[in-house]
Amino acid sequence: MQSIINRWMAQAIPFVPRALLQRVSRRYVAGETQADAVACVRRLAEAGCMATVDVLGETTTSFMQARQAADEYIALLDALHHAGQRAHVSLKPSAFGLLLDPARCEAQIERVLQAAGRHGSFVRLDMEDLRCTQAEIDLFKRLRQRHEHVGLVLQAYLRRSHGDVAALARRGENLRICKGIYAEDPAQLVPRAAGDRRAINPHFVEHVRRCFEADCFVGIATHDEALVDELIALARAMAVDRRRFEFQMLLGVCVPLRDRLLREGFAVRIYVPYGRDWIGYGTRRIKENPAIAGQLLKGLLAGLAR
């Protein structure tokens, strides 16, 4: 019965008061400012975690917005450096104008990479929906000709990722493998992925195996504990150096699994989003986790009882 209520609440999110939604979303978002992000990175470091910071927002509609996105990332890198906090940054190329003009998008990301290079940081290009996939791989390859401190995300639920991972792993690229979250044409997905997230797991394992075989660094981005255990077993069987991979998780999600991995001596990096566009991101996280949606219902009923 509780699971039914939680699912119903997840669908009712658009009608939840903004103040309540913001309170629950704080679990997943560092805050609205750079100072909030820096403070969150510091807390994670004290808990033994590394971090990658993301400025919320994507699919810009003007090059003024794209330049502003680059300015924000550069200021973020400066703020992290001045605070003595080492962290990576993740960015979505669509926020830099990829869908408007790939060359001008590249110029703005180049500015961020130069700033990251000055501070000894690392930049990860997030993967977006299929409109962006090939353009982002091409962009990544061009940037890699000039910079070593840049990596790419690939999504295990796409059929094409088998070829993409194989090609990039042979080049020794720094990759993050995730399951994938965008609603795509089922014909573009691996079999049964549209209806069963577990169907992605064998493909995910194969992608990580290719990275292990190529001895390229791989970020393993999942909260699926069974998949995590399978990949740990794979790493042990292949005698993979733990410095060649890390587990990556979202802020506020599956904290017990995060802590277990830390206790077992694995490197864990937490994705730390911040910015004013928190409501869309927080809503997606709550919908993905019906148990958290149930907390919204409790908070809403408590508010009505006052």
Task: Summarize this entry quickly.
The protein is of the alpha/beta class.
Describe the structure.
Helix 7 runs parallel beside helix 8 (201-214). The protein is globular. It has an eight-stranded parallel beta barrel, surrounded by seven helices. The chain has one domain (30-274): Alpha-Beta Barrel (TIM Barrel). It contains twelve helices and eight strands. The longest helix has 20 residues, at 63-82. It has helices spanning 2-11, 18-25, 34-46, 63-82, 102-119, 133-144, 161-170, 201-214, 225-237, 255-263, 278-288, 290-305, and strands at 50-55, 88-91, 123-125, 150-155, 175-178, 218-221, 245-250, 268-274. It is α/β, with parallel strands linked by helices.
Descriptive key words:
single chain; 306 residues; alpha/beta; TIM Barrel; 8-stranded parallel barrel; 12 helices; 50% helix; globular; disordered C terminus
